[in-house]
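To assess whether ligand presence alters the predicted conformation, the chain was also submitted together with flavin-adenine dinucleotide. Input:
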Amino acid sequence: MKVGIVGTGPAALMAGSQYLLQGFEVSFYDHKKAPARKFLVAGHGGFNLTHSESKSDFLSRYDCDEIKKCVEIFDNQALIEWLKFIGIETYSGSTGKIFPVKGTKPIDVLNAWISWLKKQNATFHFEHKMIDFDSNSIVFQTISSEIKVNFDKMVFALGGGSWSIKISKKQY
Ligand SMILES: Cc1cc2nc3c(=O)[nH]c(=O)nc-3n(C[C@H](O)[C@H](O)[C@H](O)COP(=O)(O)OP(=O)(O)OC[C@H]3O[C@@H](n4cnc5c(N)ncnc54)[C@H](O)[C@@H]3O)c2cc1C
């Protein structure tokens, strides 16, 4: 069964990882030239990956029942174990936030994750912008053409619209 995942941020990589563990054939697509740009930027100001609080406290941070159900299945502890599984050791900071061990940069976490995904035969397609889809296919705009790819399952992990690089007025 073929799964097409649009996006290569952490949500996409985790969705793909879970499908791979269940035996699906996974392909990632992103309109950028490289994966997880925001994930890499996130590391600049201190790279907390999750929190060490109890499951009930962690769950109380979510107010949507559907999301709570997902977090119940894959909680903060599951993420810490997942990171260990791909070779990333973590520690709990003084505020309870979980960080990769000192000296581990965001790019190291990303590389460990991508390397695990590739070992499971996941494929990556960059400079592929999703421009349309229907119930079993996605249309991508590549540099040279428009292509339509069929999938059994599709995941759209496109991120939010909350962050953009601010251009200073001085640059005009
Ligand atoms: C400055 C900063 C600091 C942060 N610090 C932290 C932190 O310390 N800890 C933490 O947990 N979080 C932090 N975050 C938040 C974290 O980066 C985001 O929550 C996370 O990246 C969201 O992941 P995502 O996979 O949902 O989306 P994204 O990371 O935004 O990924 C979405 C992907 O989809 C691709 N895409 C979108 N539309 C299309 C399309 N039409 N076709 C093809 N591809 C498409 C994009 O190119 C992108 O690669 C920080 C964010 C910022 C900006």
